[in-house]
């Protein structure tokens, strides 16, 4: 019987040959396929998005790891992204990165949630990188600063604080949605009544209130999570609802002055261009992840593990949803227009 290591090496060789042929046929402009080891499709799709986030790749390139960082998640991520970038027809290895995640309790053989893995990787960068300045710059690429807002409707007293998101969680309806409406809904104040009432120090009791977020600042890379998984009556289900999303997103045209914090950082350009779509196919508890990636030449490509092909924007729009047969967009990554985007 072959050893697992030998079998994996031979499997990897076959994958490299297949990937090389696919790349030659489709002209993938530097994209490289990633073999699915077990249930690694989630990580594979995220790696394609990280590779397309050149601001993050540039920051990792500046990093000089110390000895004690060997085997860390950010170091293995950097090695994998370098290999993907320098691909020259001999395939790429990300087995070490997968095993590093596995050692940090992101199992290779369990269905993972892409948003949870994405946030875990960003947290590992903060925790494990000795260069805290660079780690902070990587976090700031995705950091949406918000003011948490709570107003007692009985005495009008306002409680506020600050927080941040690395990926905005957007609620979607079971009917049709537009991304713009989902963003507006996120910033709408919600009424808290009954069992959801909060304690007001001024009133000395639980009272009805209004709760929500007000925007302070937007990042160079805006990550949006379409909350398609919902718990209802003890069951977990996936919403296949249609969510239309544009190639170009203008935040200033979506949000009103009422949802901007007094500390809002005015930006000369709040326009974003879509460059990655993480797609989920299947049901809530069992499925498959793929990705649409836009390269610097503005062409779109579809990455399904080790299969890469060039696609049109019309094909990307198939990820809007509306049908249980098709994959649906689960994460969207937008980049602020280049004239206003800087990794620091």
TrEMBL record:
Domain of life from the UniProt record: Eukaryota
Domain USP, residue spans: 32-337
InterPro entries, per database record: Papain-like_cys_pep_sf (IPR038765), Peptidase_C19 (IPR050164), Peptidase_C19_UCH (IPR001394), USP (IPR028889), USP_CS (IPR018200)
GO biological processes: protein deubiquitination
GO CC annotations on file: cytosol; nucleus
Entry GO MF terms: cysteine-type deubiquitinase activity
Pfam families tied to this protein: UCH
CDD domains: Peptidase_C19
Protein name, entry field: USP domain-containing protein
Organism this protein belongs to: Esox lucius
